[in-house]
Structure formats: structure tokens, C-alpha cells
Design brief:
It contains 6 helices and no strands. It is mostly helical.
Length: 107
């Protein structure tokens, strides 16, 4: 089993979001870092303000396909956004067991 060290950026994001990095936490950190309101951010990623609020509060999950779209719009790593979306889904399905999702691009 290989254990990867957390990057400085990931540690910072976990401090900002006060917990393990999630897609909702990452989106929140990006929005706050760019000093955007929820309404401005919603317009940028093509969803409603209430949807942004629901994502940030963890009331709504983001599908891997939608996560990929958000990554493209925001110019961030598609792989990271998809991995976090899948991690959120796995965590929601089973809150008792801790799983770690990793992705590899097909050759």
C-alpha cells in the first residue's frame, strides 16, 4: 500500500474548509478565493445561486460529468474534480467505512 503525502495546496484547502477536501469544499474555496458571490459564481458555472448554496452546504451531490464541466469552465484539473465527485458519492453511500478514490487515465 502506497501512502501519498498531502500537497501544501491540499493542506491549505483542508484548513480553509475545516475538514477533508470535498468537491463542495473545493468549489467554495475557489469561489471565496476569487472573491465572488454565490450569484456571480453560479452565473460563471451555469447553475442557479440556490444550487451553488446546496452544493457548498453538502445538500446536493455533483455528478462526475458535471464536475468535469465545472473543471473545464473554471480551468482546473478535470481529474481532481471527477475524483472528488466520486469520493463524495462513495462517502455518502457508506459513512462508516473510509474509502479513498483514485483515478487513472486509460492508456
Amino acid at each position: 500500500m502506497t501512502i501519498k503525502k498531502k500537497s501544501a495546496a491540499r493542506k491549505f484547502m483542508e484548513e480553509v474548509t475545516e475538514g477533508p477536501l470535498t468537491l463542495s469544499g473545493l468549489l467554495y474555496a475557489i469561489r471565496v478565493g476569487e472573491e465572488m458571490s454565490q450569484a456571480e459564481f453560479a452565473l460563471r458555472i451555469g447553475v442557479s445561486k440556490s444550487h451553488v448554496c446546496d452544493i457548498e452546504k453538502g445538500r446536493k451531490q455533483v455528478s462526475p460529468m458535471r464536475a468535469m464541466q465545472f473543471a473545464k469552465i473554471l480551468k482546473y484539473s478535470e481529474e481532481q474534480f471527477v475524483r472528488l465527485a466520486l469520493q463524495d458519492i462513495v462517502n455518502q453511500l457508506n459513512k462508516k467505512t473510509v474509502w479513498h478514490v483514485e483515478l487513472k487515465r486509460a492508456a
